[in-house]
Specification:
61 residues; alpha+beta; 4-stranded antiparallel β-sheet; 1 helix; 4 strands; 26% helix; globular
């Protein structure tokens, strides 16, 4: 299960991406690492990957 910190970070990221009309293509909770993984399109040929750690910290790739 995601932590409250992860859920808050996810909600903030989802709102920010939607404000920029960036489609979110994948959201998954990885039970092995306890991370939320999000994929979003920054443009037609560029994709953004965000991993949210259990403490709510984000890793952007």
């Amino acid at each position: 299960m995601p932590t409250p910190e992860q859920l808050l970070a996810f909600f903030q990221d989802a709102v920010t991406l939607s404000n920029f009309y960036a489609p979110i293509t994948l959201v998954r909770f990885d039970e092995r690492t306890s991370r939320i993984v999000m994929l979003a399109a920054k443009s037609d040929d560029d994709e953004l990957q965000i991993e949210i750690l259990p403490n709510g910290r984000r890793i952007q790739k």
